[in-house]
Amino acid sequence: NAGVMQNPRHLVRRRGQEARLRCSPMKGHSHVYWYRQLPEEGLKFMVYLQKENIIDESGMPKERFSAEFPKEGPSILRIQQVVRGDSAAYFCASSAGVVQETQYFGPGTRLLVL
Amino acid sequence: RKEVEQDPGPFNVPEGATVAFNCTYSNSASQSFFWYRQDCRKEPKLLMSVYSSGNEDGRFTAQLNRASQYISLLIRDSKLSDSATYLCVVIGSRGSTLGRLYFGRGTQLTVWP
């Protein structure tokens, strides 16, 4: 009974490169959330997706960041032209429903931009 | 004003001590509340949900005061393994915030032998 899976666990990029972070939700979960945790900060909501739909992307920077959750395959968080300030832990969570449903977190991807 | 405010600590307590964490939330319409635990460089893990009537799980007791918009977590008989950061979490309940988790910055606890 696999939990939420994320890969890669660690990602190093140089400024200007692209970062692709993947998240496979728990079996049976169709709701995916992405959160970012900057060093010494709390987790901040970025985007909420259901299969093939972005429900709420208000927490995601409008430029350089995009997210998708295709019909088949994992959810992808894509960061184009990374900058040093993008260095953070990116956590994905999934749930079976929305209101009052527990969100289960993946192990996170730690992005380091050199 | 932040959606969820917590005292960041750190709290340093001996084994066996009782320790309490508090948090406040700003949206009076919020319906669901949780405490998560996060170990260093790990993902948050659900510790317990918080209900209006209060709930207890072993050494852990969570309380909610809706009138004051205040949530608490009490840990009795602290163990070394309780050392972690405790995150107060409120779930968005309306419109565009539906389902979104709002996290406090976390309260760091260290239990020493």
Q: What overall form of chain B do the CA principal axes indicate? A: globular
Question: What's the pLDDT, averaged over the residues of chain B?
Answer: 90
Give the number of helices of chain A.
Answer: 0
Helix content of chain B: under 10%
Strand content of chain A: over 45%
Q: What would you call the shape of chain A?
A: globular
Q: What structural category arises from helix and sheet content of chain A?
A: mainly beta
Quaternary organisation? heterodimer
Q: Spell the H/E element sequence of chain B.
A: EEEEEEEEEEE
Secondary structure: elements and pairs:
The complex is a heterodimer of chains A (114) and B (113).
Chain A: E1 5-7, E2 10-13, E3 19-24, E4 31-37, E5 43-50, E6 53-56, E7 65-68, E8 75-79, E9 88-95, E10 104-105, E11 109-113
Parallel strand pairs in A: 2-11
Antiparallel strand pairs in A: 1-3, 3-8, 4-5, 4-9, 5-6, 7-8, 9-10, 9-11
Chain B: E1 4-6, E2 11-14, E3 19-25, E4 32-38, E5 44-50, E6 55-57, E7 60-65, E8 70-75, E9 84-91, E10 101-103, E11 107-112
Parallel strand pairs in B: 2-11
Antiparallel strand pairs in B: 1-3, 3-8, 4-5, 4-9, 6-7, 7-8, 9-10, 9-11
How would you characterize this protein structure?
The complex is a heterodimer of chains A (114) and B (113). Chain A is mostly beta strands. In chain A, 0% of the residues lie in helices and 49% in strands. In chain A, a hairpin with a 5-residue loop joins strand 4 and strand 5 (43-50). Chain B has 113 residues and is mainly β. Chain B has strands at residues 4-6, 11-14, 19-25, 32-38, 44-50, 55-57, 60-65, 70-75, 84-91, 101-103, 107-112. Chain B starts with a strand and ends with a strand. Chains A and B meet through strand 4, strand 5, strand 9 and strand 10 of A and strand 5 and strand 10 of B.
